[in-house]
Amino acid sequence: MLKIPDHQVAGHQARDGKLGPLIDDSGRFYKPLQNDERGSREVAFYTCFSFNTEIPDRICRYFPLFHGTQPLEASDGSGLHAHLILEDLISTHVHPSVMDIKIGSRTWYPQASEDYIQNCLRKDKEATSLQLGFRISGLQAYESAESGFWKPDKKLVSSFDVEDVWSSLKRFVSSNPVSDVEPDSSLASVVYGGSDGILAQLLNLKAWFEDQTIFHFNSCSVLVMYEKKTAKEGISQAKVKLIDFAHVVDGQGVIDHNFLGGLCSLIKFISEILTQGTV
Amino acid sequence: MLKIPDHQVAGHQARDGKLGPLIDDSGRFYKPLQNDERGSREVAFYTCFSFNTEIPDRICRYFPLFHGTQPLEASDGSGLHAHLILEDLISTHVHPSVMDIKIGSRTWYPQASEDYIQNCLRKDKEATSLQLGFRISGLQAYESAESGFWKPDKKLVSSFDVEDVWSSLKRFVSSNPVSDVEPDSSLASVVYGGSDGILAQLLNLKAWFEDQTIFHFNSCSVLVMYEKKTAKEGISQAKVKLIDFAHVVDGQGVIDHNFLGGLCSLIKFISEILTQGTV
């Protein structure tokens, strides 16, 4: 039985009769293919990536598992529609804290149409992309059984400025209530720090991006996830995954300097929060 | 006695009655200040940089020494004009091989005017900046006493595509004549490689750019220099310097992800040439 995911924080959502992703009980995530070249690009990416023997195993772990495509009843009731069958990254979580961070100061690319370029350029300027090299596209952070999740709405997130990004990255790993002015960053050392924390994982990705010239990941996101309960017990299990490959193009022998620059900027933010320590 | 520099490869030149930089016999380079905010920004940069105690010594070596400003007779005969007094980076060279590489896939910045942005955007697309994260702005490579320098003209350099960039970076460290189709890269290991070769110096800069949030170096160049005679004797003395700070702005607590991304792309090119070895 397919159902609408509970913990999606960005992207098209299968609510109110709209077309969006679905999940099942076996840990799979069904993402409807976009009808235009975005759909074909995303299939092409997952296919190439799965068969490419140059991708080291230590890097494959940062990508969702891919199980092909399948026609399925679309969530908008429009009948059969091709879906990507992916790993449901959230399926093992109870109360996932999730942040979707779109990487790159530029979400467009030379091969795109002039209209698309100008539209992206405007959005990149309005959001923090141009300034920071990344923007937060959506997030939810579990607070407690009583207050549930802190999940600022899409419109608010899209208006985030640099200060909001700082405070959201801190709030994401804090234990004090959102009503407190200053997030306490109490879980930063467990979630962001440590030998396999978020920072370490981002640094692994960075090392790969300094070298790989296979793909350019335009408009792609880093998804950061952890479970507050286990983090409070000192066990991180935090995960970094790359998602959204509808604008991936051939690297043509050049590194993805746009993604790499943005990733380094995010790394600097996370490092700073770790250095500042708990408030 | 001031004179026109012999080995300038890019930028405004003081020839044919135009306004451009001058040098003296004591190793100083006099750069006329541009009258608009570019001039004031460049003075501001050199002043801030000179007095900033946060810049490590290992990084200061990559910047020209600054000796203040001074009104001087302009090279275009227009009378007294304010000049920056800088170190003449070439003064100790006999036959300098020099390459000017403008770093960043984007030479514009959010604070600039819409006209300026669209103009830069067009140029970045036409040149290799957008694709590679850098472009070659000018170069000369010493060949021999008989044939002198290989110095492709400005127009040719501005039309360089990715293949031209590859071959120029190889040709720059080759000993065989330009008439040979394949540059032999015979000096790559001495000039690009080694513990204080170009690659090592670029990696030092990269480490700083991963951390520094003081300046954003928009439209700034890396100047690479070496002397062929000593390189052929196995002694590199190759130097990397950053130049052109008319578009430097305050980093506002964020790393310069645009410069860093482009620098990493250049590093990858140089590393590849070293890996390929001599043809």
Question: Any overview of this molecule?
Answer:
- Chains A, B: Inositol phosphate kinase with a broad substrate specificity.
- Chains A, B: Pfam families: IPK.
- Chains A, B: It catalyses: 1D-myo-inositol 1,4,5-trisphosphate + 2 ATP = 1D-myo-inositol 1,3,4,5,6-pentakisphosphate + 2 ADP + 2 H(+); 1D-myo-inositol 1,3,4,6-tetrakisphosphate + ATP = 1D-myo-inositol 1,3,4,5,6-pentakisphosphate + ADP + H(+).
- The structure is a homodimer of 279-residue chains.
- The longest helix of chain A is centred in the last third of the chain and has 20 residues, at 257-276.
- Chain A starts with 21 loop residues before the first strand and ends with a helix.
- The first copy, chain A, folds into 2 domains: 22-87, no CATH class; 96-276, Inositol polyphosphate kinase (D-amino Acid Aminotransferase, Chain A, domain 1), CATH 3.30.470.
- In chain A, α8 runs antiparallel to α10 (257-276).
- Chain A is α+β, with helices and mostly antiparallel strands and 279 residues long.
- Chain A contains 10 helices and 11 strands.
- Helices cover 33% and strands 23% of the residues of chain A.
- The model of chain A has no long low-confidence stretch (mean pLDDT 94).
- In chain A, the strands form 3 sheets. In chain A, strands 7-6-5-9-10 form a 5-stranded antiparallel β-sheet.
- At the A-B interface, α4 and α10 of A face α4 and α10 of B.
